[in-house]
Amino acid sequence: MKRYLWVLGFIACLCIGLSVPAQQNQGSRGTVLLLDIQGVIGPAVSGYVQRAMERGGDKGAALIILRMDTPGGLDRAMRDIIRDILASPVPVVGYVAPSGARAASAGTYIMYASHIAAMAPATNLGAATPVQLPMGAPPSPGEGEGKEEGQSSQEAMARKAINDAVAYIKGLAAQRGRNAEWAEQAVREAASLSAQEALELGVIDLVAADIPTLLKNLDGRTVSVAGGETTLRTTGMTITRVEPNWRDRLLAIIANPNVAYILMLVGVYGLIFELANPGFILPGVVGTISLLLALYAFQVLPISSAGLALMLLGIAFMVAEVFVPSFGALGVGGVIAFVIGSVILLDTDVPGYEISWPLIIAAALTSAAFLFVVLSLAIRSQQRPVVSGREQMVGAVGKVTGVSGDTATVRLHGELWSAQGTEPITLGQRVRVTGLEGLRLKVKPEPEEDHHD
């Protein structure tokens, strides 16, 4: 029995000894998290990248790849992503792919911030000039920061924005050891480079056609991350693609300026309809939900407070036209304020973050058509004869059913009224009411030729 026990113990130790290197080898390979950044960089993209990086840090990912194809995006979202990259203990690779992709504007800054910058063949990056600039010519290289004599405030603000962007990207270039001189050209002159040119000028670290080639070329490289230096061992790594969660997808939908714009209109008009017709419930519920979603979207979008105020003022004027007849003055003013507010609602010129002109025109025409219908009904109702009250008696025609001295009895609207004629009247004669004193009518004979029985 002891001999058998020794044999079993030896076999168990041998199995454990063989399994430990295998586990260590499996751990050394690690996991690569692949994130796709496609389209405009906005709040949804920055939230998606932030959560993926947190997941990578918590689960011990060995590498994070940001595969990009973007025309740029919002400054705040870009800076949030760069802040996460700089603080990441996991190496981050900025990779412009597939062939034909680009990393323009905000994408260029993210490439400079990444621990390793790579591009696929037939891709490009650059054109990093801030697009959210006041009207005026961009400053040329070498000009000072201060406001020169004869220079407008808008030009001075443009100069400050350019210089701030230059300082930012040069700081990233210095931290990663990349070409700072070309980075300044990308900001001041909107310069762009192909993948091969970027490699030759030291803007990126390597060119790779696909992810496997990229991982092969990264093997053995040493990079400096937030926790210190680390050497990449990318051979045999497992690639895990990280998809946006439901929150990121919802934010990506409602943060679309056109969708947020429609949600706001649905919300405002839904609440107005509910307040004008209490008890319908459905318009109020739909309006409240739509308005809350729109407000959440506006919270993460660069909204102009003046534009939003003009839109709300325009809607208020159009609604007031229904209750306070101004013969179109409030309505026309409301439509004008609504259109102007819609145009300047978003305080940015970033492509993909503007409200569609057809949508603005459609919303304005719909509101104008509604006002036209309301005003037409109001004018028609004013021109219609009065059918109730004392006013409807004047001008009505009745028949004399009895005469007693200067007083007569007149049948009018199926009722018998006491009447006094301004002229002599006879039994059976038709008379027209000219006035009303208390409960006595003032009448005059009606010419017989005006009535044909």
TrEMBL record:
Residues 1-22 form the signal peptide. The keyword Signal applies. Residues 130-155 are annotated as: Disordered. Residues 390-445 form the NfeD-like C-terminal domain. It is a multi-pass membrane protein. The chain crosses the membrane at residues 32-49, 250-273, 310-343, 355-379. Coiled coil: none annotated. CDD domains: Clp_protease_NfeD_1. The keyword Transmembrane applies. Gene3D superfamilies: 2-enoyl-CoA Hydratase, Chain A, domain 1, Nucleic acid-binding proteins. Residues 258-375 form the NfeD integral membrane domain. This is Uncharacterized protein. The lineage of its organism: Bacteria, Pseudomonadati, Pseudomonadota, Gammaproteobacteria, Chromatiales.
